[in-house]
From TrEMBL:
Keywords carried by this UniProt record: Heme, Iron, Metal-binding, Monooxygenase, Oxidoreductase
Classification lineage: Bacteria, Pseudomonadati, Pseudomonadota, Alphaproteobacteria, Sphingomonadales
Pfam family for this entry, one: p450
Keyword Heme: yes
Protein's name according to its UniProt entry: Cytochrome P450
Family: Belongs to the cytochrome P450 family.
SUPFAM superfamilies: Cytochrome P450
InterPro entries: Cyt_P450, Cyt_P450_B, Cyt_P450_CS, Cyt_P450_sf
């Protein structure tokens, strides 16, 4: 491809369906957002314009709708009777290869699987592992605090939640590189056509299944408190979960545990490094620090998944056909100034926080209690050891968009101890 041609120019374009008027069409590639070098959230927020409809349509990534504001993101998430989870990843061709359980199920089929997840990841269960979470955070920070600098993304964010999750699941840390590669293949699949991206995602999905197969076999019928043993021996509608559903359920746990909080933490720390007044506020008030997680989640959402239109319908004056796909960028909810005043600012006094960072409706993220604990513990233990810090002069983080956004190259500096 010639250097002057934007990456999106090489992407395949889907033809515009007859029911979609031309004025709704905007060329937006969720995997190559225009202006992303200035920031992932900034790139998404540059898209909505005054008088833009609640949904717009792009020919990229197989052709799909995009919700343009927080109210639309929230409504689509919350109503599975109109907006199904039958396919949630884009392009649709790739989403149809996604076999995680129970992500692609709608209620009532979804309900018993969700109960099993909630049992394993309940607030009570997560509180039992707080000491382990704190131990991992302290160990990592102590490994570089005396240097006065670190690459936060590489040395903490990409390691901390993964080590925590591998401990919860009783899996060896040596397997992390392999599993992280599978996760990246699913959340940021490579390829210029829907078919190429579907092939890449399917390879990641199969990689997870092949990895968990012998682990499930080994832990069936056994006693244990690790997350995988609890899940593979869970009952669904009074019977032990079937093997094929267990493959999807355990793989989903790994995917969620390896690629969401990992990326959220780096976005948060870039902001804190540039805003010492927020750090000072957190340091001065332990109670405010404890309550800060929700505001952080609102400000730095990283997920953009989709829903499939379940039936022909009129949605806010727009004709939708069954099978149409709607992308839900959670960045456009938490950063919507109609729902959160002055949304770019971290406001630790904010009340009535509105966001979809954990999704919404019946599929709201089951791992939210663990994510919240990891964020609070990170801030607490970091500020105990590194009370002030900044971005290294000249640092240029590298942002990536996709189903889960990512950022690399986050060099932080502080006074050596």
């Amino acid at each position: 491809m010639p250097e002057h041609v934007p990456e999106t120019m090489s992407r395949a374009r889907a033809p515009r369906p007859e029911h979609i008027p031309e004025q709704y069409v905007h060329e937006i590639d969720m995997y190559a957002l225009e202006g992303i070098e200035q920031g992932y959230h900034e790139a998404w927020k540059n898209i909505p314009k005054p008088d833009m409809p609640d949904l717009i349509w792009t020919p990229f990534t197989g052709g799909h709708w995009i919700a343009t504001n927080g109210d639309t993101v929230r409504e689509v998430y919350s109503d599975p009777t109109r907006f199904s989870s039958e396919v949630i990843f884009l392009p649709k061709e790739a989403g149809e290869k996604y076999e995680m359980v129970p992500t692609r199920m709608d209620p009532p089929e979804h309900t018993p699987y969700r109960k099993a997840l909630d049992k394993g990841l309940s607030l009570a269960q997560i509180r039992k592992v707080e000491s382990k979470v704190r131990e991992v955070a302290v160990d990592l920070i102590d490994s570089f605090v005396s240097r006065g600098e670190c690459d936060f993304s590489a040395e903490y964010a990409n390691v901390f939640p993964v080590r925590v999750f591998m401990a919860l699941a009783d899996l060896p840390e040596s397997d992390v590189p392999t599993l992280s590669r599978f996760a990246k293949m699913m959340t940021r699949p490579e390829g210029n056509t829907p078919e190429e991206m579907a092939k890449h995602l399917e390879e990641g999905n199969k990689g997870f299944f092949a990895y968990v197969e012998p682990i499930i076999q080994a832990r069936r019928g056994k006693e244990g408190e690790d997350l995988i043993t609890v899940m593979v021996n869970a009952e669904i509608n009074g019977e032990r979960i079937t093997h094929d559903k267990a493959l999807g359920l355990i793989s989903l746990l790994l995917l969620g545990g390896l690629d969401t909080v990992v990326n959220f933490l780096s976005f948060m720390m870039i902001h804190l490094a540039k805003n010492p007044q927020v750090v000072e506020e957190l340091r001065a008030d332990p109670l405010k620090l404890m309550r800060s997680a929700e505001e952080m989640f609102r400000r730095f959402p990283v997920v953009s998944e989709a829903r499939m239109v379940a039936k022909d319908q009129d949605f806010r004056g727009i004709e939708l056909k069954r099978g149409d796909m709607i992308l839900l960028p959670t960045a456009l909810h938490g950063l919507d100034d109609q729902l959160n005043d002055d949304p770019w600012r971290i406001n630790l006094e904010r009340r009535g926080i509105s966001h979809s960072t954990f999704g919404g409706g019946p599929h709201r993220c089951a791992g939210l209690h663990l994510a919240r604990m990891e964020v609070i513990v990170t801030i607490e233990e970091w500020l105990k050891r590194i009370p002030t810090f900044a971005m290294k002069p000249g640092a240029q983080p590298i942002y990536h968009s996709g189903i889960v956004a990512a950022v690399d190259n986050v060099p932080l500096i502080w006074s050596e101890r």
